[in-house]
Amino acid sequence: MKKISLGLIGAGEVAQLIHLPILKQLQDHYAVTALYDPSPSVLEQVGSNWNIPHRYTTLDDLLSDPTIDAIMVLSPDQFHGDHARSALRAQKHVFLEKPACLTLTDLKSLIEVERESNQVTMVGYMRCYAPAFTQAQSLLKHMGETRYVRVRDLICEGPWFFNSWGHVATPDGDIAVDLIDSGRAKRLADMKAVCGEDASPAILKAYEVLTGLGIHSLSALRVLIGSPQKVISAHIAQGGTQINALLDYGQFITSYECLIDDVVRFDATIEVISAREKLDIYYDTPYIRNLPGRTVFQTSTETDNTVQNFGPFYKDPFRVELEHFHDAIVAGTPVSTPLQDAWADLDLCQQIMTAARISTK
């Protein structure tokens, strides 16, 4: 099996807790040879912990390394577009963590650069690779016409889970102040470009939640049943950490519910209902390794009722997606979550925010 030389942009929480442990399991697929992070202390600690031989203090140095085949963009969301474009121009394949970008303008530019390159680009929508999800895709073919869909993201944030078992290296006050300031300014500018210059803190927080958490579910929803015709209504509460939206699919309605609070649970589900069938996909927190997903399929007739449980599936979705990325590079397998498809997901997030702004006036 061909081993791909991999460079990581960003050594933060998602790199340390999720991707690096999976990449260690996939040592026959990947060699993590290089790392860039703007914090020298994080760069050194993470590089040492994971035996990454080349640790770069500038992005240009990382991308100039001719031994690197592919780049994982794990940097803060506002830098995704810039970092992915730079990697593609350096003739590296790109695995891009979600969201692909924060604005459609940035995403359009990235798509144009990708089209000019001959590199593989894949968005890290890991829920679409979960065995429970692919099982649901197969079962959906046996269902009647969809009548209703409900999507839920009712969660406790990741730190509650991983603080009890792991440690995340954080910057020791050693990131350049101008980089911190410019990053914050860019993030705020991107969010205001979507939400409006006069957007309230709650509206801005809601967009952060949608692009950080909600886009996982919205992308899975699109892959499963397609994109909605329009957003009927949306409302935000709890300072932007609660979002409810109604999506119009023509013949049926989909409801999206999101709440981030301090009740320790991870209720991430997709429910599809037809006249006589119900399909449920259950996800668990990604911050504890190999927690299972499962799929439940219910069929009812006038005289019978059957419930089938599939799973629990213990294969980690992050592992599945990285195996898929490897196959796309080595064997030319079509990417299941291409960059172009991310446009519909980001556009839907923006439509939800437009509807939410109307409801708050």
From TrEMBL:
This is Gfo/Idh/MocA family oxidoreductase. It comes from the Bacteria. The lineage of its organism: Bacteria, Pseudomonadati, Pseudomonadota, Alphaproteobacteria, Acetobacterales. Pfam families: GFO_IDH_MocA. Residues 5-125 form the Gfo/Idh/MocA-like oxidoreductase N-terminal domain. It comes from Gluconobacter cerevisiae.
